[in-house]
């Protein structure tokens, strides 16, 4: 993966940055819309106060700051082709994410970035593509899926395997429908707990990997979700024959600076804010096997 750290990146390592700014200095963005997706998850739409676009590569994150509360790394969940609109999908798990997720329209938030490596979904052109998402892990994958559907004819079979805790926790329901109906993506959804009127699958998303229809010898796979789910999904994909260098995971760790200075995100020799968050399985497998890291 190529690191695209710093603001004003255009999603390509060769991009010339017209303006270099201090990566520790947040830009002001205004919340223009807040949508409640599930019980605890919200999507914010933001626009830059200075009107300048924030170009990003699918898979990158920003350090998003609620002034007076704190800052958290949050993946960009919007369309890379629409850099005037910044979208973040946030699960309320603590003080910072609570302040961010419930910020009403008009709130000014601080944004640093975009930071980190991208999915580089275009590497899958000419072959099959498999996305495996668990819970809010669908949010960091959404920009890659939007990038793919914009050039759908360039890819072979595309499969999205998505696991949520309950039917009420399923994210981006309208998108899932569109991706299947309009873009020929095979979308398989499963839930851990399917009470109520749920008539779909119940079980772990990793169990869907073994019977999904794709050619492992010519597949790019992208996985995002809780670490234990990624571990099992990566093993299942590798067992099917997906090459480790064609299998990518987005890793989460505590982050403070986002630019490779503080060491909070260290995974042995890697700083996940600049070497990741998206990394290929050939680099990650030896590290993920060591639970203490
Ligand atoms: C590269 C990267 C991208 C991320 N993208 C997103 C994203 O798109 N959307 C999003 O909602 N979050 C995302 N996160 C996670 C997010 O940064 C954390 O949830 C956030 O920092 C928690 O801060 P807090 O102050 O709200 O909670 P804290 O007070 O720090 O934590 C509250 C409690 O929640 C637990 N917790 C912390 N993080 C998580 C988590 N991820 N899942 C479950 N429990 C957790 C803690 O262990 C603690 O018990 C990302 C993290 C990284 C590193
Ligand atoms: S968050 Fe500071 S080094 Fe990665």
- Which architecture of the largest domain per CATH? 3-Layer(aba) Sandwich
Q: Low-confidence runs (pLDDT<50, min 5 residues)?
A: 2-18
Compute the number of strand runs: 15
Average pLDDT metric? 92
How are helices and strands ordered from N to C? EEEEEHEEHEHEEEHEEEEH
CATH T-level topology of the largest domain: Rossmann fold
**Bound ions, cofactors and other small molecules, one mention each:** flavin-adenine dinucleotide, FE2/S2 (inorganic) cluster
Count of alpha and pi helical runs: 5
Report helical residue fraction: 10-25%
Q: Please report the distance between the alpha carbons of the first and last residues.
A: 21 Å
Strand order of the largest sheet: 10-9-8-7-11-12-15
Largest sheet: 7 strands, mixed
SS-based class: alpha/beta
Strand content: 25-35%
Return the CATH class of the largest domain: Alpha Beta
Q: Calculate Rg over CA atoms.
A: 18 Å
Spell out the CATH superfamily of the largest domain. Nucleotide-binding domain of ferredoxin-NADP reductase (FNR) module
Count of all domains: 2
Q: What coarse outline follows from CA principal-axis ratios?
A: globular
């Amino acid at each position: 993966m190529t690191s695209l750290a710093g603001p004003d990146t255009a999603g390509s390592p060769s991009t010339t940055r017209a303006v270099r700014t201090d990566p520790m200095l947040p830009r002001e963005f205004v919340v223009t819309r807040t949508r409640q997706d599930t019980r605890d998850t919200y999507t914010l739409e933001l626009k830059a106060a200075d009107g300048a676009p924030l170009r990003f590569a699918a898979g990158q994150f920003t350090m998003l700051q609620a002034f007076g509360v704190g800052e958290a790394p949050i993946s960009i969940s919007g369309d890379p082709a629409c850099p005037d609109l910044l979208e973040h999908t946030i699960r309320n798990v603590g003080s910072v994410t609570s302040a961010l997720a419930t910020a009403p329209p008009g709130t000014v938030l601080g944004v640093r970035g975009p930071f980190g490596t991208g999915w580089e979904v275009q590497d899958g052109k000419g072959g099959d593509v498999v996305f495996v998402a668990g819970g809010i892990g669908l949010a960091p994958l959404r920009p890659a899926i939007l990038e793919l559907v914009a050039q759908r004819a360039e890819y072979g079979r595309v499969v999205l395997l998505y696991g949520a805790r309950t039917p009420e926790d399923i994210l981006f329901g309208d998108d899932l429908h569109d991706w299947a109906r309009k873009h020929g993506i095979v979308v398989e959804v499963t839930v851990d707990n399917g009470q109520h009127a749920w008539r779909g699958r119940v079980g772990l998303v990793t169990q869907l990997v073994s019977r999904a229809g794709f050619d492992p010898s010519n597949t790019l796979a992208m996985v995002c979700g809780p670490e234990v789910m990624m571990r099992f999904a990566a093993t299942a994909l590798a067992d099917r024959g997906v090459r480790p260098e064609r299998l990518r995971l987005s890793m989460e760790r505590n982050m403070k600076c986002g630019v490779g200075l503080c060491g909070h995100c260290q995974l042995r020799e890697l700083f996940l804010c600049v070497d990741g968050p998206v990394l290929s399985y050939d680099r990650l497998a030896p590290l993920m096997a060591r639970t203490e890291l």
